[in-house]
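Exercise 7b. Backbone tokens:
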């Protein structure tokens, strides 16, 4: 998996990133689909060991506490075990907020991990001590909006790494019915075309649909050595159980199901209709 940077440097064992900057929502974004525009780093963040982004949902409001999205395997507490789901856990983690050119302009702080898991998907969502309006008014930077619609194969995408201040541009090559890596299994993962040859530290990078400017996935892993279903060497498993190994191929986890699990004030509610995220 696209392990945190320290683990990557120790064994060169991370993958996941993208080619091309991220697209920040304009001031006052209400969630309406934006027109295609240049991708920048605005709204992305650098963690101590990974990448991430300030995100909002289509129904989020400006006075809601802002959220940062990264990978579950980037948690400061270590990898969640298979089947483990973390909710509402206190955290004071900090994030370096980037502007359009990739310059760090602020340090944002979390007050809790709202949700995190490595089961079915690989995602962490931190709640910040600041609102979207406070961030925009102080730094002129809007959040990236999560698309609530599943992306299509062939869509042009950009993976934006706040840690490395580097981007990768490619396309959605297809989808893995199941992606197995070590003890973890993820569902309906995005497979990149070869141009997204992501590297260590890009874990948690937002994957941007370049036509809409919305986030469709979170970058998380790749098969590095051609091994079968081992850590850092995920394998694809189809609906019939056939295993395929694609050395050098990188992957992301879709995010379109996440908005249904958050209600007013960006509060997590795993019992909401349409919410399919794993529960504790």
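Sequence design result:
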């Amino acid at each position: 998996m696209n392990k945190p940077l320290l683990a990557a440097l120790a064994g060169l064992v991370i993958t996941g990133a993208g080619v091309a900057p991220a697209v920040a929502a304009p001031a006052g974004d209400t969630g309406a689909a934006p027109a295609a525009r240049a991708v920048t780093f605005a709204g992305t963040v650098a963690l101590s060991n990974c990448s991430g982004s300030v995100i909002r949902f289509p129904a989020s409001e400006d006075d809601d506490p802002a959220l940062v999205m990264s990978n579950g395997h980037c948690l400061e507490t270590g990898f969640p075990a298979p089947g483990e789901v973390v909710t509402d856990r206190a955290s004071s983690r900090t994030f370096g907020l980037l502007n359009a050119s990739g310059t760090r302009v602020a340090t944002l702080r979390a007050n809790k991990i709202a949700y995190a898991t490595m089961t079915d998907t690989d995602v962490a969502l931190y709640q910040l001590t600041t609102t979207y309006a406070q961030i925009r008014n102080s730094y002129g930077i809007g959040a990236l909006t999560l698309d609530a619609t599943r992306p299509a194969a062939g869509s042009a995408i950009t993976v934006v790494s706040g840690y490395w201040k580097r981007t990768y541009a490619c396309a959605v090559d297809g989808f893995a019915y199941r992606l197995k890596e070590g003890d973890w299994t993820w569902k309906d993962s995005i497979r990149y075309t070869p141009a997204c040859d992501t590297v260590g530290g890009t874990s948690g990078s937002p994957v941007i649909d370049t036509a809409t400017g919305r986030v469709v996935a979170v970058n998380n892993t790749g098969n590095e050595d051609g091994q079968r279903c081992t850590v850092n060497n995920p394998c694809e498993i189809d609906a019939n159980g056939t295993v395929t190994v694609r050395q050098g191929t990188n992957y992301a986890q879709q995010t379109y199901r996440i908005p249904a699990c958050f209600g007013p004030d960006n509060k997590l509610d795993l019992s909401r209709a349409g919410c399919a995220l794993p529960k504790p």
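Instructor comment: Helices lie at 5-11, 132-139. The first strand starts at residue 44 and ends at 46.
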